Amino acid sequence: MSGTAAPAPGTDPGESTGGPGWDERLARVALSRTVEPGDALVGGWLDRLGPVETVRALAGERPLPGASPQRWAGLRLRAAAARPEADLTAVTDLGGRFLCPGDRDWPRQLDDLQAVRPVGLWARGAGALRLAALRSVAVVGARACTEYGSHVASVLGAELAERGWTVVSGAAYGVDGAAHRGALAVGGVTVGVLACGVDRAYPPGNSRLIDRIAEAGLLLAELAPGEHPTRPRFVLRNRVIAALTRGTVVVEAQVRSGSLVTARWADRLGRQTMGVPGPVTSGLSAGVHRLLREGAQVVTNAAEVIELVGAIGELAPQPSGPAVPRDLLRPAAARVLEALPAREAVGVAWLARASGTPEERTRELLGELRSLGFVHGTGDRWQLTSPRPRHPDR
Amino acid sequence: MSGTAAPAPGTDPGESTGGPGWDERLARVALSRTVEPGDALVGGWLDRLGPVETVRALAGERPLPGASPQRWAGLRLRAAAARPEADLTAVTDLGGRFLCPGDRDWPRQLDDLQAVRPVGLWARGAGALRLAALRSVAVVGARACTEYGSHVASVLGAELAERGWTVVSGAAYGVDGAAHRGALAVGGVTVGVLACGVDRAYPPGNSRLIDRIAEAGLLLAELAPGEHPTRPRFVLRNRVIAALTRGTVVVEAQVRSGSLVTARWADRLGRQTMGVPGPVTSGLSAGVHRLLREGAQVVTNAAEVIELVGAIGELAPQPSGPAVPRDLLRPAAARVLEALPAREAVGVAWLARASGTPEERTRELLGELRSLGFVHGTGDRWQLTSPRPRHPDR
Questions:
Q1: Which one in A69, A88, A210, A250 has a CA-CA gap of 20 to 30 Å to A167?
Q2: Is A125-309 in CATH node 3.40.50.450?
Q3: pLDDT in 10s for each residue of chain B, 394 residues
Q4: Do B280 and A286 touch (CB under 8 A)?
């Protein structure tokens, strides 16, 4: 690929979105073909060099720091095979698009993933992703679920959608599919995050469902078109589901279920982690019960889920700065925001005292403020987001 | 009754137990006929005057402070009808006895009930109550339980008993009965706390079960022999179940279930509050799920229950002072105990800092230390128990 290629017809270059320019966009498309999901090494390069320089380096001989010769060779092979313009055209022909960090429609909460943030997202469907994802909840669980699990997931999906919440899941058999179907049945918005290209329907038995999600909501994938799902891709897809949403509800899961991975990512990212209990005699609820014992919240219906993920006011997406006006914050969140110093990063304990909010609650509210773009932080250090970050990419 | 009556044959006067003397014993027997369970007004009189003076006052004209004329008249009528020697003889003939606060076999954790502590306990069965109650767990729940609830309760009862824990419940239909039966089936110890006299079998359909509990374990009642159960007596019986045990497990309960009363008493008394989840589609699990959402712990088997109520070492009951030697405390509990000042009462937050223990955990450990007799406290003030309390009665 060349850094000076002209915009392909039908694509959405940076100037119309306020996002990154054409060079960066094309570089990220190429990287979506080159890099496996969750590759923190490449994430570090992107952070330091930006996507254009990273792609340029992958075309050269000198390995970037940290890559073993074998790893470097593998990345170079895949980079050389990338055909970003062709990929863009293929997905555009399907009515899809490619979203970059910094785009108006990029869900900023994905930035919480830091070094393992997707390089970009392929999207199919007409919905505005950022808006849809702001009030979204993940409903995930066992593929081989029981009738109980499928019933609960579809009722939950329908009730969440009816109350204006976007249902995010993985389009898999079982709980995932039931949650999507529940949302679709009431005319709601639902987002399916795939572990393959957005041009593929996996699992094949859900191809009609996947088409319906693309029609009524959005299909997302960080992998380039045509890519197949693999075991690690499934597992790493879950971090996107967790990061995109304000909380993850697990409906039936065995103790080694991938949906517990989603829940643990949600917890790590400061999102709500929730589980629907079931009979203790059922192995398909054992994973959920373990999660609950680890501190996840018990939820038995959509109202309880919404109570936890919190109602936020009317949304007003903006290209930079917080996605909702400060005035629309709930009083508790506003208090924590007010207490943050202008420039310094502070600890959670300090902030809890300063805002007169219990520490656990402060942590939750910080997660909320982060997903709304007001603050950023890692672990125990938190600070205000600058109104115009110097590196719009991060 | 007269304060100078001689010991009735077959009863166990104070001198052989290190407990209160004959006068006080007889006064408490009379009060068990006179006072409704949980009467804090009479509890206050007992605290200030002792049982002998309280009974004497109830035989006089001048009302004790706080009693309305109607209340006073009612209590006097019932006090006049009390025949304590006859009651003692009747229960002794059944192989039973009357336990007073201060008796060697009195479970000191009941003292946490303060003004609503039972005036005494009628007991039927050969077991040593104090020993049995030290490692005990309440398993309670819906009378009209499902097969699921009855299955879970009986397995839990059996597994707890197999691991040397005493199963305490209310001898009712449904979950209670299943828990008792589970414990009995493995030859374990189980304690039934009745809302009527220990000479009665209520509910009648459980009369065989109630007899078996008396044979293999213990039946307890704060009401005098012959007394019938009433709605308030059922509800107030639950505080005894909660106070007697190191934690309460609720297996199936509707949202207005009496077993939630037991759980909330347990929580207020610093005991563990636990719930066994079930299908969210079942109204008989809705009360349990509400409890879990209020902060009770999710448990799915006996091992998880025991993990929460804590394993304590070998027991060495003593007439006064802690019921287990300090050396046998778990390190975490020992650390909190060590941090308590010699004479002053301190707050939980202070103690958490001093012992380097998270505040929530400190609270749990204080509950444990209290039930073992090392500390006493109300709400937020805690202090060491004197080795020989000045009022052995409290």
A1: A88
A2: yes
A3: 444 444 444 444 443 456 899 999 999 999 999 999 999 999 999 999 999 999 999 999 899 999 999 999 999 999 999 999 999 999 999 999 999 999 999 999 999 999 999 999 999 998 899 999 999 999 999 999 999 999 999 999 999 999 999 999 999 999 999 999 999 999 999 999 999 999 999 999 999 999 999 999 999 999 999 999 999 999 999 999 999 999 999 999 999 999 999 999 999 999 999 999 999 999 999 999 999 999 999 999 999 999 999 854 323 333 233 334 465 566 777 788 888 887 778 888 888 888 888 887 787 778 767 756 677 776 678 888 753 233 333 3
A4: no
Q: Are A173 and A146 in contact (CB under 8 A)?
A: no
Q: Say if residues B304 and B356 touch (Cβ distance below 8 Å).
A: no
Nearest CB to B278; choose among A279, A297, A301: A279
Chain A residue whose CA is closest to B308: A293
Chain A interface residues (partner B, CB cutoff 8 A): 148, 151-152, 276-281, 285-286, 289, 292-293, 297-301, 304
Q: Is the dihedral of CA B147, B148, B151, B154 positive or negative?
A: negative
Interface contact A280-B301, CB threshold 8 A: yes
Residue A314: other Cβ atoms inside 10 A: 7
- B293, B301, B304 member nearest A298 (Cβ): B293
Six-digit token pair at B144? 């009209």
For domain B124-309, give the CATH number: 3.40.50.450
- Per the CB < 8 A criterion, the answer to whether A221 and A111 are in contact is no
Give the number of other Cβ atoms within 10 Å of residue A186's Cβ.
13
Which CATH code is given to the segment(s) A326-384? 1.10.10.10
Nearest-CA distance B392 → chain A (Å):
40
Find residue B237's DSSP bridge partners: none
Query: Between chains, do A300 and B289 touch, taking CB under 8 Å as contact?
Result: yes
Cβ-based neighbours of B143, under 8 Å, separated by 6 or more: B172, B173, B174, B175, B176
- Interface contact flag, A301 B280, Cβ < 8 Å: yes
CA distance, residue A293 to nearest chain B CA (Å): 6
**Assessment of whether the complete model's pTM goes beyond 0.95:** no
- Contact state of B293 with A280 under an 8 Å Cβ cutoff: no
The ranges assigned to domains in chain A are 14-123, 125-309, 326-384
